[in-house]
Write a structure and sequence with these properties.
alpha+beta, 2 domains, single chain, 31% helix, two-stranded antiparallel sheet
Length: 165
């Protein structure tokens, strides 16, 4: 038996109402989703790569592979430079790159879950190692200092080829 036009209209109205409710729910969910600041390319990179070039994607990958735990080290700039120069290492510089480190950021006095990174020093990964050291120059309760963390991405951040811009 064919539907009456009023029954079809009510059915279409319910379908439209459900679609509108679903769309509103998606918009609300997207608005509640956490905002993660983008990882920008460094402003400058000191590369100790010999004939190779530093790779921004490699730097970003190592930077985001930390365990979010501060090491008990208090590295000096001389120690860090010595480690970075020992092989294919880099020092990348930013103006307060926000890096999601929920536990470390609390220890540094930040309240939003992000450490403010001014520089990252990435020495070469030791042969056969499961982790490498990563040194970050960060804001710590209003002053800047170097901290040490472990990173699990062991790739060489220096590669053959042309310099990335």
């Amino acid at each position: 038996m064919p539907r009456s036009s009023s029954s079809a209209s009510r059915s279409r109205a319910r379908s439209v109402a459900r679609a509108n409710a679903a769309a509103a729910l998606l918009v609300a969910a997207a608005a509640c989703a956490p905002h993660v600041p983008p990882l920008r390319s460094p402003l400058s990179v000191e590369a100790f790569c010999g004939s190779k070039q530093a790779r921004n994607t490699g730097i970003a990958s190592v930077l985001t592979s930390t365990d979010d735990v501060l090491l008990d080290e208090s590295p000096t700039l001389d120690d860090i430079r010595r480690a970075v120069r020992s092989g294919d290492g880099v020092v990348a510089h930013w103006n307060d790159q926000e890096l999601a480190l929920p536990r470390v950021s609390v220890a540094l006095g930040e309240t939003d879950g992000y450490a403010r990174v001014r520089a990252a020093a990435i020495p070469p990964a030791p042969e056969g190692a499961q982790v490498r050291h990563l040194y970050l120059f960060v804001r710590d309760h209003g002053r800047e200092r170097w901290i040490a963390m472990n990173a699990y991405d062991l790739q060489n951040v220096c590669v053959e080829g042309k310099r990335e811009s």
